[in-house]
Amino acid sequence: MYKYIIIVIAFIVSCGESKRSGPEPVRQLIDSVTSETDSLIPQKTGEDTDDQGCKSSAGYQWSVIKNNCIRIFEEGVKLNPLGAAENKTAAVYIIFSKDNSKVELFLPSEKASVILERKAEGQSWHKDIWELIPWKGYVLKKNDIPVYGGM
Q1: Which residue positions in the chain have pLDDT lower than 70?
Q2: Three-state DSSP class for 53?
Q3: From the centroid of its chain, how far is CA 15?
């Protein structure tokens, strides 16, 4: 709507210019207005895609373990924040590999997921500062401090 109003205004203004200037200044004005107003037009759901082709506005994220776009809130296990969590309102989601040797963490503060691995059945999964322990469901530790937990 804004785009059309600005184009009409640009046309009216251009009509007042002398005939010697020709249509080129009007075209330049319209092009500049169009490029500025394109950012004002809201994106429709599903029109945005990330590098892997996932539509984030529809809730999809790329999963390394599943090798596909998934909705983590539908396929993942939800872990809720515990007392030591930095963000007390956002949940973490985890996805397991088929053989349970790897876990993919979807953290609210990270754009990319984190892959944890374990060496043997019954052990916890690890990577850098993260550890996922299978205890009364699952407990996710950051630097040995429990920060998320759930079933």
Answers
A1: 1-47
A2: coil
A3: 46
Cα–Cα distance for residue pair 91/89, rounded to 1 Å: 7
**Rounded-to-integer distance, Cα 139 and Cα 120, Å:** 18
The predicted pLDDT at position 32 comes to: 62
Contacts by 61-64, CB closer than 8 A, 24 or more apart: 61/106, 61/113, 62/113, 63/95, 63/104, 63/113, 64/104, 64/113, 64/115
**56-78 pLDDT, tens per residue?**
899 999 999 999 999 999 999 99
CA distance 32 to 110: 36
Locate all alpha helices (DSSP H) within the chain, ordered by sequence: 2-15, 24-37, 72-75
